[in-house]
Amino acid sequence: MTARRRPRWSELQPLLQPRGASLSPTDRRLASAASIADLRRLARRRAPRAVFDYTDGGAGDEVALQRSREAYGRIEFRPRVLHDVSVVDSTTTLLGRPASAPLVFAPTGFTRMMHTEGEPAVARVAAREGIPYALSTMGTTSIEALAAAAPEGRRWFQLYLWRDRGASRDFVTRAHAAGYEALVLTVDTPVAGPRLRDVRNGLTIPPSLSLRTFVDGALHPAWWFDLLTTEPLEFASLNRSDGTVAELVGRLFDPAATIADLAWLRSAWQGPIVVKGVLTVEDARAVVDAGADAVVVSNHGGRQLDRAATPLEVLPAVVDAVGDRAEVYVDGGIMSGSDVVAAVALGARAALVGRAYLYGLMAGGERGVQRAADILLGEVSSTMALLGVTRVTDLRPDHLRIRSDGR
Ligand SMILES: Cc1cc2nc3c(=O)[nH]c(=O)nc-3n(C[C@H](O)[C@H](O)[C@H](O)COP(=O)(O)O)c2cc1C
Ligand SMILES: CC(C)CC(=O)C(=O)O
């Protein structure tokens, strides 16, 4: 009979350690985030209130923001069973080049305000995951620095037309020289949307020091620590003159821009042009007639015109009107991979997400963005499998129905 050996301490120790004990506190928190909503909760704790609210909020009473989100809640999937889903392929092509999923990281201004790792962190994750990322004109990293940070990534440049057309031309020239693949012309911001949270919080760009911001910062020391221990924000596009977001927009953006400017851009830029911020069939037709290769059905995440149309609801009509001549994307309120799948089933070539990756960034820098990407991409694949679909091109409107009872 063999004696039972007593286990050694060294063998027991790993079993007694809490799961993930070798991870840093940030990594542990990120690993425990199972959804984008969880990342949002972490972001809210870490970022100063004014920064979180700028990211999270919308215009006016935030009706457009709420409706954009709720539209996804009305989706009811119609899964097909007994289909072989052992291999699910979420790849697609966007603007004629491969992407690992029908997903794009949307342009977001002042990204290094959310976390000092900022745009380079977002671009590196996008490059690693094989999805495009659009750098904003209002970015806090220059066109060239971002290209250097993620040289192998699919980089698009988002253009706001400025009063100073020389500056707009300069952005186009620099984006071309730095190897950006496409321009995204945002057309829904002739003036700033009324962001009431920003007014109440006294937000300025860059954030200025006042009693309120000092207290806000003191309550969120990790964010301040990061800010103070990295190089100052570059604010690629700005002349470093402080002001509110609305003042900046009023000073820089051209409210007189028309479809003729799109025609000008078409002649100045040889690559693909994506027009972002279209909400009607009429405008979709007009911009495609003027040379757009893709349109983004978008209400700017509910941040511009409050009570503007809900993108997911407008999407099918725009696909019907221009889908044979241009790619149609959608954004606003997308918080999960199953939202992305629903948008694609309703005809979108891809979905853009803004806040979803920004919550990750605020929660934990590049690792937080990676967590957001892992969650979204994992959910895209699992939703496809559960729907009985193995290819993006097989997603159809009859994979879902839209509930009218709002539940
Ligand atoms: C903090 C923040 C900043 C944004 N900045 C820009 C910008 O500079 N240019 C732009 O075209 N859109 C901008 N957007 C809008 C996004 O590109 C996108 O349309 C929107 O975030 C989609 O909604 P979602 O955040 O619910 O995904 C911004 C959105 C957020 C949340
Ligand atoms: C208005 C810009 C300055 C940035 C933007 O597009 C946004 O905050 O939604």
UniProtKB/TrEMBL annotation:
Domain of life, source organism: Bacteria
Per UniProt, FMN binds at: P107, T108, G109, S136, Q158, T186, K276, S298, G354, R355
Residue ranges for the region (Disordered) are 1-27
Claim: Ribonucleoprotein is one of the keywords in the record: no
Q: Which residues are catalytic?
A: H300
Query: Domain FMN hydroxy acid dehydrogenase, which positions?
Result: 28-405
Q: Which cofactors does it use?
A: FMN
Key words, A-Z: Flavoprotein, FMN, Oxidoreductase
Q: PANTHER family attached here?
A: 2-HYDROXYACID OXIDASE 1, S -2-HYDROXY-ACID OXIDASE-RELATED
Q: What is this protein called?
A: Lactate dehydrogenase
Give the species. Intrasporangium oryzae NRRL B-24470
